[in-house]
Structures
1.
Amino acid sequence: MVYYMSLPVTDTSSTTGTTRHVDTLVIGSGFAGLGAAIKLTQAGKRDFLVLERGNDVGGTWRDNTYPGAACDVPSNLYSYSFALNPGWTRSFSPQPEIQRYIQSVADKYKVRDRHVFGCDVLSAQWDNDRNQWRVHTTKGDYTAKVVITAVGALCEPSLPDIKGIGDFQGEIFHSAQWNHDADLTGKRVAVIGTGASAIQIVPQLAKNVSHLDVYQRTAPWILPRSDREYTKAEKFAFKYVPGFQRLSRTLQYVTRETQVVGLAKAPVFMKPLQAAAEIHLRRQIRDKDLRKKVRPNYQIGCKRMLISNNYFPALSQSHVDVVTDGIDEVTADAIVSKDGTRREVDAIVVATGFHVTDSPMFAGIIGKDGRTAAQVFDAQGQQGYKGSSIANFPNMFFLVGPNTGLGHSSMVFMIESQLNYVVDALKTIERYDLGTVEVRQDVQDRYNRELQEKLSHSVWNNGGCASWYLDKHGNNTTLWPGFTFEFRNQTRRFDLVAYNSVATSDLPSPAPSAVADKKKVAAK
Ligand code: N01
């Protein structure tokens, strides 16, 4: 369904037919984009649209419907601070419940009519003549003074480049694109990958398949999952006792923040957690050979720490094999590992993660010097300022941008921090009638030098693993290197001084060629 009938849109000319102009375009409607729609509305902004390629809000929680999908951050923390949900049934909610929560927030705050669903953004190009963004989508063209990209880091599935994988004749799909029509009951199935998604999928698949091969490239550290159903009394208290749920959330927040010391500042403090993971492994896997196979050889926290109570027991079952020899090739009906062993399978689940630092989306964002975000990132890495703006991309704000990821707590907290910053930026633009704002390159460079210096002490950089946290330059451009309240403090207010800005009245008029273009189109 398309919702844009009530919007104050203005037609401008374009070579592709009618172009809608809005003051602000938000791209994507997961936690970040939906949060933006709510905060923009609350700030009194009416002239904005959210372009969403799916047919509903939810983003990654709408798309990841694989069996066992659930959050590994407690729900009381993994929710908007302004929309606590007394209805959570468990401490760590499953995907359908999170998706229902996100939908209910969209309804409660009445922002669905700000959305254009089924609208895939193909490109966004800064127009130097008119000082605005030209956004090309599968549902027509838009221009906007400001673009907020909220596409998230986990939206583009990464498919492994394995010889012959395209020739496989059985069912094959990515964990984020689960084919619910494929009945895997009684089948021989392979799962490639042992990350956060795979360890949730494997125990569910193991229940029904005749044989399961788990292809592990790097073993993850796994901690116990303290998940449980909320009691009636707790649910009652969440709903009716003022402050009870917020207190529970605060306790979860504070407990998780203590991990930052070990993760980001002094990895030696990760030792107690690693000991807990060792004990968990020993308790759950009796077979010494299997235990040796799945014991990581790097420091805990270097890759995302996972939580599960049913992954190791699933691996211990007689019809489940962990394959660590590496994949040589895939044939029409089998996976051949590097030691030459051929294992026949009916289906392959590819749980190999996402394009985080190399999203194809970046190739479609074209900045003021004509370079795409992909080219800029290729040259310098994914560097930004406060995760929210990037030099060369004026009037564009990024939610879940560079160095905003977390290894220990709720991304929703980071998103809300960014929303404070971005909404204040829009208010500042309006207050001073600014035509353009663009973060200063020198400010961005200094910010990134400081970030990388901090990260050089972290377990992510020193823990002895390879991970998608680090880009091809060896820089960690994904994670925030400190306490999340430090990020909250940094993003409380938009700092105009860090930006080059031009008042609307000082912007040069459109170049003659642009005016001529406009006239030509108008004459058609
Ligand atoms: O992906 P991943 P994911 N051949 O990148 C392996 C979030 N999340 O979808 O470690 C063989 O973690 C790869 O091996 P290696 C969370 O932020 C959150 O599981 O690179 N194997 C790894 O084992 C998470 O971090 C929740 O050596 C290959 C796996 O595939 C992010 O999503 C739940 C390979 C990929 O693991 C992504 O998780 C689920 C190849 N060519 C996910 N390429 C929550 O609960 C990759 N691998 C909030």
2.
Amino acid sequence: MNKDYRSGFVTMIGRPNVGKSTLLNQIIGEKISIISNKIQTTRNPIQGIYTKEDTQIIFIDTPGVHKPRTKLGDYMVESSIQTLQDVDVVLFMVNADEGYGKGDQFILDKLIQLQHQHVFLLINKVDLIHPDEVFALIETYTEKVNFDEVIPISALNGNNVPTLVNLLREYLPAGPQFYGDDEITNRSLRFMLSELIREKVLFYTEEEIPHSINVMIESMERRDNKKTHIQSLIVTERSSQKGILIGKQGQMLKRIGREARKDIEELLGEKVYLDIWVKVQKDWRNRTDLLHDYGFSDKE
Ligand code: GDP
Ligand code: MG
């Protein structure tokens, strides 16, 4: 082992939509965490692994903290808070464009209780505001918590992101390389594929649909040494939602399938057949048994 090797775990926390997933993708350089302009996009904590000759940083993208309204919501908030306990550095991310809000106070109260973790304040989306406004924002937050570092960034265009990564290294303990050079996420391939499909649903549908669906990859197989066939299933809560997802003459589902297939092919580096089925599973977001089946549970 390289004697100067450093490694550790870093979690990102912040209100929904502040840009956590965007930052993760910017650092890791692959589309591993889905992004959308609708809130509550990320449901399970996702790890992204950054590896260099002398550093490995395992990033945990949390679902975001908000007031839960369903059992799925409860699970999302719980799992975000829990990740804070086991990491070396917490990145508390705020939106420069929106400024201080109630949701931030909820998180700050949790951060104050942390004793062993370093905490950075990341002011994200600075591309949207005038540089002069950054200072006032920094003051608002640093009055409340003593941060180890305060870094204005743009997760979207990458501004200051290398600085952030270099600073993170300084705060990590000496440690081994936990994951191989080419591992960029702990998530299974199936999970990543289902997220690419879910992202398209979020993108093309409105209002209640995005948050009331779940996507599963049911099978993946290569037939006759030709293209890989991927069979996936979208679960909705009501038949009206199923109708919207399928669309007139199946147009909506075709569009979702076409766009998802492009991303999947890019990720896998090969052509695939993608089949998507839609099924109604009444009120799945409030059914503990189904949440467990779909992987939203502490017991893996
Ligand atoms: P999350 O809910 O915290 O994971 O937020 P996302 O990463 O999904 O981002 C939410 C929205 O903010 C997306 O539309 C992003 O493109 C946008 N966004 C993220 N970072 C930036 C940034 O630095 N600048 C701008 N202008 N938009 C950003
Ligand atoms: Mg996210």
